[in-house]
Amino acid sequence: MRTQYPATTESDFMITTPTPAVGAHVPRALTGIRVLDLTQWEAGSTTATSLAFLGADVLKIERPKGGDPARIASVDNPTADSLYFLVLNTNKKGVTLDLSKEEGKALLRRLIKESDVLLENFAPGTIQRLGFDYKTVSELNPRIVYGSIQGFSDQSPYRDFRCFDAVAQSMGGAVAITGTSDGPPLKPGPTFADTGTGMYLASGVIAALFQRHTTGRGQHVKVAMQEATITFSRMSLARQQVTGRAAERVGNASPSSSSAPSSLYPCEGGGPNDYCFIYTARDDFTGNQQWNALLKVIGREDLVNDPRYNTPSARFERKEEVDEIITPWMSTQEKRRAMELLNAAGVPAGAVLDSADLINDPSLRATGILTEVDHPVRGKVVLPGWPVKMSDSPTPALRCPPLLGEHTDEILAGVIGLSASELGDYHQRGII
Q1: Which architecture does CATH list for 262-266+275-351?
Q2: Terminal CA-to-CA distance of the chain, rounded, Å?
Q3: Domain 28-232+363-428: what homologous superfamily?
Q4: Out of 37, 57, 98, 194, which one is annotated catalytic?
Q5: Parts of the chain with a pLDDT under 50
Q6: What's the confidence (pLDDT) of residue 78?
Q7: Nearest one of 94, 101, 71, 102 to 409, comparing CA atoms
Q8: pLDDT given at position 326
Q9: What is the model's pLDDT at position 184?
């Protein structure tokens, strides 16, 4: 029988923080920084959204017809912006400019002069053909920080190749070490080559803004997706140097140490995600505390001090036997209950939570990492928030991604001073 838990609400998890008065302006870390977001798809959008959550005024620049191609990647509602686009572009303002026309380029040049950051992740050669490479942009505004995401470094023989998350994961070493020892390589589910590269670029942009205080100059910040992925897979490089051969796929085992247990165990319910992960560290110096605590929780105290399992190395050599010891108890436990009992005893364990578990978790709604908002076309949607909490820079309320060009008139009038008649003319001729 599945274990029943008391019903919980968001209030059970609420963290009490001071609430600013309605209409009060609360400065945040990047308040006053204007970002021109020329990116598309995931990696660059991640950078821009990160800066937006930190308080920057992010203007998403798109083509008047179609916009970011991610908008039309919808399978459930072809008349609305895709959810793929929505989860990537919160807290921005939307501006349309036709950069294939000289007048559109002229408007972007005027915005560049009034901005602090420009972000781009176009295919190789595109930004140069548009006439907005770093050299050109820095001549217009020497203080601008120019952020670029590319698939491969300038020194790479693959620098002219197009790159997406799966390509970067393959060529950055992540795919080779994912999977079981007797199976093919597998692409990890999370798109960390995209999102991770975007976060690296965000950190570089922020560092460049800080350095600008002392130099008075902006600079070009570049991150290559292959190189970012290599850093996420760095443990395989350590393993390579220990064994002298390519790091092997180890399934759910630790890629950097010889530990057991380190595996997923099926739990009560039998569903596709009814599993719990147990990982005991190499506790050579703690007298096998985690292992002995685990044995007590699962009712196998008879194996405490058994020489077959009394050191991490011994357990690793008999890891299949270790799994056989643990599996019978785990199969009788609901995954969250197993996790709670093990952690209460000091044993690291985590239930496998799928998207349905997460999207309905009241604690995640309470912290704001998942927020339900009203989209003007789609209605209520749940979007991811910002995980970084800062004592003097409050996380803003999550705003829906902009409709295509939603803030064009507001920005062009407010930032570069276009009149109503000029705006009307540009609209009529399809420039904006």
Answers
A1: 2-Layer Sandwich (3.30)
A2: 61
A3: Crotonobetainyl-coa:carnitine coa-transferase; domain 1 (3.40.50.10540)
A4: 194
A5: 1-24
A6: 80
A7: 94
A8: 97
A9: 93
